[in-house]
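hi! just following up on the protien thing from before. the input was this:
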Amino acid sequence: MKSIFDSLSALLRAAGAWTLTVLTGAAWAVNDLPGGPAVNQLNLQPAVTKIAQDQAWLHWFMLIVCAVIFVAVFAVMFYSIWKHRKSVGHKAANFHESATVEIIWTVVPFIIVILMALPATKAVVAMKDTSNADLTIKVTGMQWKWGYDYLKGEGEGIGFISALDRAQRTLSSKGGPDAAAPVDDYLLKVDHPLVVPVNQKVRLITTANDVIHAWYVPALGVQQAAIPGFVRDTWFRAEKIGDYYGQCSQLCGKEHAYMPIHVRVVSAQDYSRWVEGEKKLMAAKADDPNKVWGMAEIMARGEKVYAANCVVCHQANGKGGGPVKPLDGAAVVLDADKSKQIAVLLKGQNNGAMPSWKILGDTDIAAVITYTKNHWSNHTGELVQPADVKAARQ
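and the predicted 3d structure came back as:
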């Protein structure tokens, strides 16, 4: 009972603090985010695709039809109650059925449903037409990042992981931004946005590595589930250059709130330059899986991989927290059989609590395992080579 009262007390204190924040205006210290949410937003975000425009029109059409029906039905009802009330001498009619009334209340709703279904069906069919795409991108949801692989079209072969910006994750751990220093794109900034060309049809193929996710960008009019073991697709054609933001819209675990989406729409010329730059970057990062690494250089590589991918859950000190197991002193890390830790990185464990990181390259996985085996209080002296990871994949 005491714990219940303590919880209620904490809830009341939080509500009071929130109310004070609202009254003082601190809660609204941010500005509208172009391509993302706006302060005090009541309507849908401004559409930048034909599909999103159709959705907005359909939204208002349905709302108006429902409002008219509501007003008409209740107006007739209240008029009948008032006009035929007993106090002015009216008596209730006594009859059993009326074929005319039954035909009317069957035909009229049927016509209304057809009028609502026609534009809705047209919009849904258009949303599912992924043919003749200029660009095809595979979107992989994972706890709690997005993987993008350019499969067809200009940029084919490019692939990367997009995660919440580390500075914003750190800011969240400290309780959020200071009211005196607002962050308009708070929890929406990523380290590597998805880049696409303007006025080109982009087909998205969605799937997931672990649990169900959903790729959702309101301004583009796209919301598609990413389901493990299944392949779904959708598309968009952005008609305006700019940055557009969204989030995973399927509850996918404790870091669900830290899985933003950032789509950058650029001109065809800028997109070609971006593709050229990405391919040069990938070529520079390409590693020979048969290269034999020294301890110092692979530890330096592993530190960077750990900071970019692992530190969110396991912390910089390797202690973990809550359901996340520590790496400092962990049995699987200290185990002389390195294949056990390699299997954890490739396959995940604990029903997805530790996700699979097979999307990383062999060198990155080898480097981060070596780093964890030889950092903090872990001093195993073991060095994992990319060839070990490559062999474990087969």
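Residues 295-393 form a domain with the Cytochrome Bc1 Complex; Chain D, domain 2 fold (CATH 1.10.760.10).
Confidence is low (pLDDT under 50) at residues 1-27.
cheers
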